[in-house]
Each structure stands twice: as C-alpha cells, then as structure tokens.
Amino acid sequence: MAVPLFDSQTPLRPLRGRLLDAIATVVDAGTFILGPQLEAFEEEFAAHLRARHAIGVANGTEALTIALRALGAGPGDEVVVPSFSFYASAEAIPPTGATPVFCDVDPATFCVTADTVRAVLTPRTKAVIAVHLFGNVAPIADIEGLGVPVIEDAAQAAGSTAPGGRPGALGSSASLATFSFYPSKNLPAFGDAGAIATSDDALAERVRMLRFHGSHDKVTYEHVGYNSRLDEMQAAVLRILLPELEGWAGHRRQVAEWYAAEGLGELAALPVPTPGSRPAWHLYVVRHERPDELSAALAAVGIGSRGYYRRPIHRQPAMAHLGAGAGLPGTDEAARTHLALPIGAATTREQVAEVVAAVRDARLS
Ligand SMILES: *Cc1c(COP(=O)(O)O)cnc(C)c1O
Fold first, then answer.
1. CA 70 to chain centre
2. CB-based burial of residue 35 (10 Å sphere; 0-12 exposed, 13-18 middle, 19+ buried)?
3. What's the gap in Å between 194 CA and the centre of ligand 1?
4. Ligand 1 in contact with 61 (CB < 6 A)?
5. What is the pLDDT of residues 267-316, one digit of tens each?
6. Model-level pTM?
7. Are the CB atoms for 185 and 210 separated by under 8 Å?
C-alpha cells in the first residue's frame, strides 16, 4: 500500500459541503477584498492565538517583509535568520533594504537557540527571525533575553504549543509573528494566504497601513507599502478550517508517538521537541546517515519522503555572497542528514507501521 508524504485532501473531505457554502456566501455578498469574512477571521485567529491582533496578508513571505518594515528595518540594518529553513525566511529580508545574517540551528530540534543567535549579533542587528521549523517551537523568551526584537516565523507551527502559549504569541507584547496558510501548511487556505500577529496596538496599525499601500485612510499615502491582503474567499475557507486545527494538530502529535512506538528511534534519530513544547509536526523529520539512499528505498515500495533543505540558504546561489562567518556546523549536519517521512491529519497507524517496516527493511542503519 502506497503512503504519500502528505495528504491534504482526506482531512477536507467531510467539510466539503460547508466549504462550498462558505464560498457561496462570499460570491453572494459580492465583497472580495477587505470585507466581513476577513474581519471575522482576524478576530477568530487572534482569539485562538491569545494575541490582541491578527492581520491577514497575501502570503507568509510578505508577512515577514511587512513585519520587518513595521519594526523599522531598512538599509544598513542586519536581520538574523537561520540558514536551515525554507528559503522565504531569508528572502523576505532584502526587499526591506536590510541584510540577512545567517545563524546556526541545533540539529536535534532544527531550531535556533539563544547561543546560535548571540554568536552573530552586532550593533547593527535590527531583529531576529526565529523560525519554528517543522512545527517545533524555538525558544522565543531566551532569544528576547538577548535584548533584540524577535519575529516568530510560525509558518510551519500553527497548532503547536509551548509553556508560554502558542507560536505566534510567545514574544513580548512588542513583538510580531507571521503565518502562512499555503495549502500544505497545518492550517491551509485554498490558495496563497498569510497573517501577522502582534499584541502591540501601534505595530498592528503599522501592519494594516503597510498591507494597504502605506495608507492609514486610503486617501493619503504616507509610505511605500504593499498590496498584500488576505482575500474574502480565503478568509471564508479559513473560518471553516480554524476550528479543525486543534484536532488536526492532536492527530499529528499522535502520528509522532506512533512512529516512536513502532521503533523508528532504533533506525534513525527522531526529532526532539524543545523543552516543554508540544509540536504539531508540520513535517515529521528524522536524521539518518544515508538519507537519500533511504529515500530511494522507500520510493521503491511506494512511500513518500523528502530532504527539503539539503542545500541550506547560505549556500543558495542568491545568498551565497553573504557568507556565514565561521561556519554553521549544526546547519550543515541537519542539511546533510534530515529526511521528512509521511505525516498528516489523516495518517493511520497502519501507514506508520508500514513506513517503519520499510525503513527497517532498507537495512541502511
Ligand atoms: C511556507 C513558509 C514561508 C512562506 O510562506 P508562503 O505563504 O509560501 O509565502 C515562510 N517561512 C517558512 C518557514 C515557511 O515554511
């Protein structure tokens, strides 16, 4: 039986009627941008996060750029970002005029730590983008303890929790967090969509202004901003799916427990949640000395797997000129060894058992 790397269709099937009704509501209302669906979703998502504000934007990449602009990042500033992440975490920085500075990760958690961030701070550091990679939760309070503003990149961490709350609301009241609702993420839209969360009223107002062409009143244009809105159709879909997030996240945690119970830990290094966190694993990523051979062996029996970030961002052609100081050993280790195995809100115990049996049968450990 084939096991896909991810299956975003099956969890949506029971919601089909309600999703089509929600879309019909938008069609009948005839308002497609900045209307009542977005307003309601922003309130519901902020309540879910326990943040004062959530502001819908066009996607998770622009969410980061706009969050950086709201903090005042511009030419001459440096923004710290992990090299082991999706490319967009760093790509969002240069459009502000600021320069990405790459920091390392702990290969066991795949997340930045206060130590890896401290190692690259300079007087020009304007902000740190702390990525909650694969749904694991980066130590936001520790990083804020360094005295530098933090933006949580929570694109992969909807549904995760940590002792201080949910990703998206782990920072001080004057911080920002960003989300992506790209269709494969933990909380999916039916196209591109994103959001910015903050509990600071002034930052929230700056974000609202920046997403609408740099204007507070739509008459006077004070800044060069963006056309970056989460549209009514996507907001209506997200309002149907947000109440499902908790259950889907719980199932992802259950799948991770099944992988451990089936003995995967004897065959590969399992992902390690950061202290106290309960990750809603967006991707279930193990480490293995021969990940590409293992991936080929799994593919031969119909099981999906993938090394997402084999070439970390500081080695990508567009970013290599920026360098990485004394090197990023944790990043290189994670990049070389990681492999994502099937996980989703509909993954079954039988599928997990089959994946683990196939890893065992590959005899590569
Ligand atoms: C998906 C993702 C983004 C970008 O989100 P888009 O909505 O695709 O623009 C940014 N950071 C991380 C870590 C992501 O996984």
1. 20
2. middle
3. 9
4. yes
5. 999 999 999 999 999 999 999 999 999 999 999 999 999 999 999 999 99
6. 0.98
7. no
